[in-house]
Every structure is written in C-alpha cells, then in structure tokens.
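User: Please predict structures.

Assistant: First:
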Amino acid sequence: MTPAPKKPDWIAVDWGSSHLRAWAMRASGEPFDKAHSTDGMGTLQPSGFEPALLRLVRHWLGDRATPAIACGMVGARQGWAEAAYAAVPCPALSGNLTQPPVADPRLIVHIVPGICQSQPADVMRGEETQIAGYLAQNSDFDGIICLPGTHTKWVHVSAAEIVSFRTFMTGELFALLGTRSVLRHSVAKKGWDDNAFSEALETALSRPEALAGRLFCLRAESLLHQQSPQSARAALSGLLIGAELATAKPYWLGQPVALIGAPQLTATYATALRAQGAGPIVADGDTMTLAGLAAAYASMKETP
C-alpha cells in the first residue's frame, strides 16, 4: 500500500509577473517538494489568484488550514491584494503581512510587503524577500546587495536595514533592444563572446554618455565588418551593464558587494565587477527567496 504523501507545515510561494512557484516546507524551513506554473500575476484577474494557487498546491493540503507565505507581484496593486510598501530606511521584512480573502478553508495566505523610496522614487517587490534571506544567513553584513534581473536593484544595507536603493531597467532594455529594435537583425538569441563583452563594458564605463551611439555601432559592425551575432549579443550586454555600473558607482565602489540572483546573471555581473577591482560574493536567488520566506514565516509565528 502506498503511504499518503507528507503534508507541509507551510507553503512558500514566489509569485511573479509571468510565473508562480511554490515549495512544500517543513517547520524548520526546509523544502521537500516544489511545483510551478505559468499563472503569473500578469495573466490573472483578482478572482483568479486563489484558483491558480489551488491548482498548484491542492495535493499538499490536508484537513487543517495550511499557511502560505507569498512574495512578489502577487502583492502589487494589480495582484491578489495590495500589500502596502514599507518605506526606507526599514528592515527587509516589516512584519506587516497582508492577508487576502481565501474561500477554501484549507489555506491561509499571507503576502510579504514590498519596499518603497520617496526620493529618488523607487519600489521593489520580491527582492526584499531575497535580501531578508541573505541577511538571515549573514546578520552582520553591511554593504551593497545587487540583484540582477529584468529590473536590477542596487541596495545599500546597514545595521540590518535597507537604507536606500536604485533600480536599473538593464535586463528589460537588453530584451527590447535585442528583439524589437533594429539590433534584432544583428544580435543572436543565445551565444556569447567574452572579449566582445569586456571591450563593450570598458567602453560604456569610460563614456556612458555615448551609449546611444555605441548601440547603433553594433548594427553597423555586423553590416560592414561581419561581426558575429554572438559577439553582438555579448557587446550589447557589455554596453548596458557598463552604463549601469558607471551610474551605480557610488553604490559599489569600495564597498562589500553581494550578488543575488540566477547563476548566469550573477556570473555576468561578477565578471564585470571583478574587472573593476571589486570582489563580489555570489548567492543563489532561489535559495535566498526560500530563506526570506522562512524568515517571514518565523516572524509570523512569533507575532502574538
């Protein structure tokens, strides 16, 4: 006889614009199962969030109500329920979790709030959970946390608080320029050239104001000098990351830097930073998300 599957003590949920990921968690903070779907926030109406989550986790649910701790765009204004931003300076986890209405008695959902900054205006949702996870494992860290992605964050952390941060649309610009602009004829969808990346990085770091002109050179290089699409892709990345690093220099120059994110992205940023004499620490994004959600679950249990 096959034994009944183990039920989780709680469920960790990372809900972005294009994806939904969930982990069955033990009380200790260790996952023992996971599931994912393409039911991202951007595809759902408010009434669709509970059914989407139930489709993914119903096989984990038992007779009692199981708590689910969610982070990301699920707490946006267009999400399941808006989780109010905490304003900097503040801890990565404010403790003010938002509880959306849930009809199924087997599930209780809590949403982690995002972080906002008045001047210059900026917001984050999801990254605060990764930062909380990193600080849970590195409680004495003072310095800069960079979270590369579609919208890369540079975050100043001191005394266990987020002091300030800046967002750069580098990843989104890379995708748009490579697939929707004239550069789509010259840039490969995959492949790489380390030398082309390094040269473009140095060019943008030394003259970030020339970015727009250097971008069109990628098209001209392919027409006149047969630059390979793979080299053009790497050069496009180098130009955009170089311009970002030039602007973000007050954050990373002379500071301890931790990179959190997907391995391929953090490796690219680590290469760029090491070329400038920085020695970043690298942490896996999924691991930090789970650690942050575990910290949120622990804080919720401690709240009277």
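Second:
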Amino acid sequence: MMTNIERAFIRRLSRIPSHGLGLSVDVYSPNLFDLLEALASQGLCFGYLEIFQASQAALAEVRRRLPEELLAYHAEGLWMTQPDWGASDEAIEELSKAASHLATLGSYWINHECATKQMAGWSFGTYVPALFTAASADVTAAHATQLQHSLAASGRFTSGRVPLVLLEIPPLTYFGFGDMPVTEFFSRIAAQTPCGFVLDLGHVWTYYRYSGDWRRRSVAAFLGEFLDAFPLERVVQIHMAGLAVHESATENASEESDGKVPFWIDAHHAPIPGVLSDMLDQVLTHPKLRALKGLALEVDTKSIAQIVHELHQVQQRFGERVSTVCDAVEAAPVARAALDEECVIDSIIVEASADAAGALRHQYENYARVVRGHISASQAGLPSRWLEPGNLEVYRQTYLPHEILHWGGDVRDMFPETCRELLRAGIDVSAFVAFWFREPHPLNQPYDFFLLKVDRFPRFIGEVLPTLFSCAMREAGALRDAYRAACDDVVQHEGAHS
C-alpha cells in the first residue's frame, strides 16, 4: 500500500511538466546570454535551463529575457546535512532568499547537494559529502521536510506550484565517511520525506572509484547493483558533467592507479568522458526510473565551444530517449490516492530527528578535525567504506591547500601588493592555510567563499606582518566593491544587447 509520504511525492511530481534535455548553467561563467547566442547560431535547442544561485537582479534579468523557457534552480548555502541548520538565523535568511529566487525563475524544483561547505565552524570551498549514517540520514530528511514546508508557507507560490525539494547525491573527492551504503542512506531519506533526488552520474562514478569497487568489478556491474538498490523511483533529474584529475594532484595520483582507473574527481569544466555516456545508457533503460523530468548537462565554468559540442553530441545519442522517458512519466496515470487532498507530512519527523542531533553534531566536529588533519579517522571513531590508503592525505596535502589559496579567487591575484610584500619579507603565503584551519569561526553570515577569503586574509596579515595590515584592508575593500558590481554585471551586459 502506498504510504502518505509516497502519495505526497507523487502528487507534487504530477505538477511538474516534462523538461527533457537541458543545461545546468551559471549566469556568469560563462556568460549565460553569450552561451545562448552561440547555441542559437548552431541551431541547437534545449528543453530547460537549471540556473545556479545568483543575485536576485541577475535571476530577474534571466527570466525577463527568457519569458517562455523552463527554468529550474540549483540552490547553494542550505546545509541540510548539518544538525543545527534549521534553527539558525542564517538558515532562515537563506530559506527566504531561496524562495524569492524560485518565485522569480518560476522553477518547479529546488535542487541542493546532499553535502556541505560549512561544518562545525569550518568553511570549505567545495562540497564535503554528508556522513553516510542513519542519524545523518534522519536529520537530512527532517531538514528537507522543513524546507518543503517553509516554501509552502512563504506565500510566494500559488496553490499547486510550490517547488519540489530535490537532494542531489554528492561526489566523493577521494574519500567519504559512514557505515552504510549510499543507496541505503538515500532510501532511508526517501522513507521519511516526500523529496525527490538528482542522480549525478559523475558523482556515482566517484563512489565506484573511491570505494575500491574498481578493483573488484566493472563499472557496469557496480552501476547495475547501485541502481537496483537506490530509490531510483524518486529520481526527478539526472546530471552529467565532466571528470578530470585535479590540477593540484601529485604526479603519482595523476597517473592511472595500477594502470586501470584514473584518479578523477567531479570537474564541471572538463570534458564528459565516454564512461558517463555509457552509464547514462544503462540508467535510461532501468525499469525503476519512472519519475524522471529532466536531464541536465552541468556546464558552468566550461568553454562555450565545448558546451556547444557536448550538447550536440548528447542530443544526437540521447535526445529522443530522454524526451521519451520524461514524456512517459508525464503521461502515466497518477494514483487517485495521490490526487486527493494535499498530504500532510507529520511534523513529528522534524522533532524525532532532534534525538540524533547531539551525537551527529559531535560526529561532524570530528569529521572536520579529520579532514583538516588534526586527528586520524580511527581516533575520531569515524567508520568509512570509502577510504583507500593515501586518498585522504591527497585531499589534505594537495586539494585542500589549493582550495584555500586558489579556488574561488587566487589570493595572490586578490591581494597582489600585499603578497609581493609578504614575499619580500620571506613569508610564504601558503601559511594562510594553517591560519584558516587553526580555529573554528562562528557561522554568522550567509556562505560566500570569496568573501570569506576577503575577510580572513587581512586578519592573517595582521598576525604575520602587522605593518601590512592597512595595505591588505585597502585591497579587501576594493575587492568587495568589485564583487558587488560583478554580481549584477550580467544585467548591465544584457542591457547593452537589448
């Protein structure tokens, strides 16, 4: 018999039209309207655009310029995996902003990674996956439910058009922690909340790579078992992006391990490898895939020429099949029970998860300490199915320092005068990494990694070379001014084209 939660999901799914094959894009990188001009010049069409979080003005301009297009929304800063997320003032502010962005775009869903960039007072530039434990799944499910209720209560959406919450399976950047399979983790979430899921094929490949499964079986065999166990009937969207060796990786890690499988991680700027197309072929034929509404190529930070080429290639191979699967979902008869009065999901879900929050909070504190290299995983008591020897060290010693120094803005480019003087004084700017992770910082403002660096680098300078503090503060002020202007630059850029 269908559960109340399943009925609620089907009811919400039934309101979403088929989106087909589309693109998941950033407004700014590359400039969205330059991309659209290039696609039009080649006669390439798309079913929809999934827009990554941007300024309100920029999103409004996108909707104004594309009044007839289906636009979806990829949110940022809603750290639903974290035990204290829902109660914070920052979460309330981010919820309000997300609702406004969704209403502006007219999106049928809100997608967010089941991961975080802020954990127990520590900030990262790219996603750190959730702990794959029962307590973590319960808290995440409760927060997804809270987000769905908050959107409904926001007053920004007409009856029947409240966007559906989608949780995206996160990538592994060399490692992951937990004591349950990813498939069981998401099945546990699905049993407790009527959200949908985004199946990112590159992310699934990283489970194959960093679980060590690649040593035992083919990717096709791994994927077959994964799809059978995953709640595929909740997958509303599929993502496909690039995979590549990270530029910070060591020479040994950059080579194919044992001559078999590359040391790839999720990389939107990189080409889509053939293995992901083969995986998509396998997913599209699975009988449990019965809620799909769209497939998006994630192309933010990719060159326009590469986007045009890849969209053409995927359209030729998969375009008709994707449309057929999505249209079949839209045409399928929906159970009458799901179309009755709006299903009410008992708020006990949110309350029940509070019992696990304290223990989970402690686990995330240890998780952050392990990732930074302050303690070992065994000392922290963190179980792991995804921790091959040496992989965590690659993250700590190469990826993480590169993230702090270069990702989201290279500090040498951001603070050129200050860094030149540091060099003259014989101080290596890489010391900023140790400063960054020396102590936790209260998470008392919305997450923005660029602005975090703008704020913290002058503090670092004030400690290591106080005579340069005023110089660093002056450069920081200029960066903030330029950043504010750049956020709405797409509006000005398009004004010139109108």
